[in-house]
Amino acid sequence: MIDVTLWLDTSGCLTGIDASGHSGSAEAGKDIICAAASSLLRTVSRTLEMEPSIRIEGTAEEKGELHLRISLLEGYKKDWLCGVSAFTVVGLKDLESEYPDYCRVSFRKTDSELLDYKEINNGT
Questions:
Q1: Which pTM does this prediction carry?
Q2: Would you list the DSSP string of 55-122?
């Protein structure tokens, strides 16, 4: 099972990503679910890394592991960060919806409160 926790601030912007596990739906190198999750998470990580007003710190020490903390250094990029966050949420929730036995996505507010996906869509 791929477990992803997306940490969000009160605006719904990413403040962290924790992902671990493998879907186990196919042998290594042929697992489309792992490939999809990896591709999305790598793209989001690289996109954030390339933006000078965003600081990311984290590790990906083993295959199937990613832990990032995201800080916004300049407030004028908040809307941009929220857009990247929405892209990430939609992509991962779609993957979870298509493959619920292999991928689980959860949300936490930066203050550690567990969120329901409906709350994310309502902007709370």
A1: 0.85
A2: EEEEE--STTEEEEEEEESSGGGHHHHHHHHHHHHHHHHHHHHH-TTTEEEEEEETTS-EE-HHHHHT
